[in-house]
Amino acid sequence: MRVLLLLICLLLVVLSFAENVPKPKAQARPANLQVDRRVVTSINDLGFRLFSELDKGNGNVFISPASVELALAMACNGAAGETKTAMAQALGAGALTIEELNKGNFQLLTLLKNPDPKVELAIANSLWGRQGITFQPEFQQRVRTYYKAQLDTLDFAQPQAADTINTWVSDNTRGKIPTLVSPMMLQNAFMVLINAIYFKGAWTTPFDKTQTQDGPFTPADGTQKTLPMMRQRDKFRYYESDTFQAISLPYGDRNVIMDIVLPKPGVNADDFRKSLTNENWTIWQRRFGVREGLIVLPRFKANYETALRGPLTALGMGQAFSDKADFSNMIVDQQAQITDAIHKTVLEVNEEGTVAAAVTGIIVGATAMPVEQPFTMTVDHPFFLAIRDVPTGTVLFMGMINNPE
Q1: What is the helix (H) or strand (E) element at residue 328, kind and residue range?
Q2: What distance in Å separates the CA atoms of residue 388 and residue 259, rounded to the nearest whole number?
Q3: Which of 14, 27, 47, 397 reaches 20 to 30 Å from 259, CA-CA?
Q4: CB 269 within 8 A of CB 28
Q5: What pLDDT score was predicted for residue 31?
Q6: Rounded distance, CA 381 to CA 250, Å?
Q7: pTM of the entire structure?
Q8: CA dist., res. 215 & res. 278, Å (int)
Q9: pLDDT recorded at residue 116
């Protein structure tokens, strides 16, 4: 019995010691590494242009500009001639050489690591090639070096190939996006290029759950619903124009922020959407000031999935999807084109913080002011939001929430 009591005491001492051992802090961002602002501008501008092509109805639209840009930038390394030029212009990187684009993305991937002790931001890239197809060594080296991509070959004729890719997608989005490709998508594919982003951030000041109350929310179609509405009164970064209210809600140590832009009642929805451009976004960011007020925000979840072929074609890179595509810098002795471009996202917002994930798959296959008064901002109708990295200014996610669930 004494031996047993002694062992229990020793175990309690060990557990107590373990609890008091300081946990390792997230490594600070490299202080001597600067981001190429042209790359950040191209990512944000691509996001707003792509958003304008996708935001056509009353449903939710939620995309990751960073994910789309990184996937397309990897593919751009394999393009040649007019195809390469068109892809670079669609990316908003027409003034950059491919080397500058790669180095800029490498810097960004490095800087986006460990943004905050209370924020988890994981970005992963992968390249899956079909067994028996010869890929250009220089293309593979660039993707591996600059985008830190995992490179693997699979037998796309086997159903297990899709399972392997989907497992990678699920692992790198923490299970939030379990699937991306199907065996049918891989039938004529030569290569699949994938970017995955996972974000989990705790609010700097969490919402008090006891203050959450059911309240009305009016979706874009005008039918009212009831949602749990979170409430917080504090000093916020805030901006108000004649047509909208905007607020910044920070995560952790304020290195990552959610911006919410709420059109005022009576503002024409189409006019509001047209105002959502990178140029206006940059101007608005400079006009935020600290102001006391009340934010009322729904607790909600949203899922989004879209094919990017149509929107990217509208942005000028249609040739990459046609039989005129030139991916000779990617694949040896094969006429290839982009056969599919898929984008999936999820978003969860609650009293503790936010979880968001995105995955982009590019499948390459064979051709076939005055004194400010306290404000009240009640987000009870469709609103635009963006999650951005503050030090670099990169918009990680953006979207129009027309019908939260």
Answers
A1: none
A2: 8
A3: 27
A4: no
A5: 61
A6: 22
A7: 0.87
A8: 33
A9: 82
Q: Where are the alpha helices (DSSP H) in 122-199?
A: 137-147, 159-172
CATH ID of 205-298+371-399, from 3.30.390.50, 3.90.1300.10, 3.10.450.50, 2.30.39.10: 2.30.39.10
pLDDT at 85: 95
Q: Kindly give the residue spans of alpha helices, DSSP state H, lying in 55-117.
A: 65-76, 81-91, 98-111
Q: In terms of CATH, what superfamily is 37-201+301-366?
A: Antithrombin, subunit I, domain 2 (3.30.497.10)
Query: Rounded to 10 degrees, what is the CA torsion of 112, 118, 121, 122?
Result: 110
* pLDDT for res 29: 57
Intervals of the chain under pLDDT 70: 1-33, 368-372
Looking at the DSSP bridge assignments, the partners of residue 377 are: 295
Domain boundaries, the chain: 37-201+301-366, 205-298+371-399
What are 241's two structure tokens?
């124009």
Query: pLDDT at position 118, please?
Result: 87
When the pLDDT of each residue in the chain is averaged and rounded to a whole number, the result is: 90
Q: Is 232 helix (H, G, I), strand (E, B) or coil?
A: strand
DSSP, res 167 = H
Structure tokens at 348: 């969860």
Any idea which residue has 């992963």 for tokens? 124
Question: For 376, how many CA atoms within 13 A lie in the half-sphere containing its CB?
Answer: 3
DSSP letter assigned to residue 116: B
Q: Give the distance from CA 100 to its chain's centroid.
A: 22
| Torsions phi, psi for 102 (to 5 deg) | -65, -45
Place of tokens 């379990």: 178
Segment 196-232, tens digit of pLDDT: 999 999 999 999 999 999 999 999 889 999 999 999 9
What was the pLDDT predicted at 369? 46
Alpha carbon distance 304, 103 (integer Å): 31
Q: Which residues pair with 385 in a beta bridge?
A: 260, 399
User: What is the token pair recorded at 62?
Assistant: 């939620």
